[in-house]
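TEACHING EXERCISE
Course module: macromolecular assemblies
Task: Read the component lines below, then compare them to the predicted structure of the full complex.
Student: A.B.
Group: 4
Components provided:
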Amino acid sequence: MNSKTFGKDQVVTIINSVIQRIEKHDAPLPDAIYHELLALRGIIDTLRHEISATRPSEGLDHFPQAHDELDAVVLATEAATNNIMDACEGIQGEIASLPDAQRQAVEQQIMRIFEACSFQDITGQRIGKVTKSLKEIEAKLSAVINTISAKMPLQEDAHAASAPVVVDARPDADLCNGPQLQGHGISQADIDKLLEDF
Amino acid sequence: MSVDKTMPVLIVDDYKTMLRIVDNLLRQLGFNNIDQATDGTMALDMFGKKSYGLVISDWNMEPMSGLEFLKHVRAGTHNKAVPFIMVTAESKTENVIAAKQAGVNNYIVKPFNAETLKNKIAAVIGPI
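Instructor-supplied answer key:
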């Protein structure tokens, strides 16, 4: 398997191509579909290898799920952020007896640190979006493999344990997109103007 | 007339670090009666048991989002007109419109600073 990096769009394109072929009456030979599924599985395995490369002491038969690794990142940043805020609150306690001007100057800097700590919320949401996409891809891949294996025997064990289909049942799920990339969301000033014009 | 800073404030966010940040910023502003919830369902339950003077809520939470929480508040009979500020990373125009249509009083996009939070709260409940 080559080490080419595959984007989510490429994976989705391949999945859709496979599904379209299955649905066509004039479906091509099973071998072509089978090889596309193998390629998809290879992409997922490569992704897991790359993400878990920071844990070289683990054996090759214990690769964690990609989304578990990303969840671990969120937990680690949360712990670090809490440590930072603990230290800030400690400083706030220590400066209580300082002259007003000095105390306020230090508190202002502490406030900046608290504001900056909101990075953990933003990065956590971005990672959450990636995790959600990975789960969707893995669920779709499992569904395709299960459909194919029901129609024909595969040449090797596909390890197609059915992944649960992720369904967001919230009524406003289409509005829950998380932080936008630069240039794709509107600014606070734009929001203020929008609310004024309402 | 200055704002009563002893009034109960409800802050809602599924990220505990964000709850801690907002709590700290509110205390710096002089508010000291602050309750926390980690999603809309928990917030709705708490909201029904106390007369909050201000709600500051995130949007993207599960199982109940901040928007659904807001809709429930506005549709209910208990304290339905409570000042409600959405503080969220959702920054699309349609989000702001949906929130306004649901009855939000102000909308802050993350990341934000203490000055913005203060100004947006003051715009809703009066000078702090």
